[in-house]
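On clarity, I found the account of how folds are encoded harder to follow than it need be. For illustration, here is how one protein appears when written out as sequence plus structure tokens.
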Amino acid sequence: MTAPLIATRALTLAAAGRTLVEALDWQAEAGQRWCVIGRNAAGKSSLLRALAGVGEAALQRAGQVRWFGRDSHAWPAADAASVRAFLPQQSSDRFPATVLRLLELSVVRPRHAAGDVLRALDAASLGERNVLELSGGERQRVALAQCAVQGAPLLLLDEPVAFQDPAHQLQVAQWFCSLSDHALVISAHDVNWIARAATHVLALLPDGRCEQGPASLMLQADRLERVYGCAWATVEGDAGRLWIAQ
């Protein structure tokens, strides 16, 4: 039996005396797109960083994160880069470089051609642009391209559409759906975008408990109310079902 791309065993995360995630047993396979949902400060970013094996000084952690059945701490840095790519909420650039040069530097295991990824993300025109001169939305799409060309089968993406206009949010969702040989773990706030992009949802509740399952079962009014602390209603229209917070 093949090990999942990523799995947690009794993963517990705490910060400032508060439990963010308690005893999480979870896994993701290739072809799955997991969206992590929860209120602000629920622990979404901390969870993604823990899944990526990125240290966070203020975070207390217990339990295991495994990539391909092997504890994440046991992977040498170079090998880890071939397994998982991590996108933080905001990219920080310290030196000028063109977008194409930045993508060249991001390759670990050749898997996706830079030009193909830029076209899929409506960023082909940015190739010769200086990354220091990009808008927030442009830089976010370039950061997604960096994760893709890195070549890792596991993509851990913290709010990848936070700076995107509606058209680009839709385009990113469509691109995610095309990555059938990857496992994606994504944090996001827009329930309607999540319904379009996700196959599965991992919900972080205020008391540290987590609920998980297929998106069609997780995106229900009673569960969303437990997650966000407000009532929800649905509206059926030509574009399908829309979720509205009340």
Notes: The mean pLDDT is 95. The first strand starts at residue 6 and ends at 15.
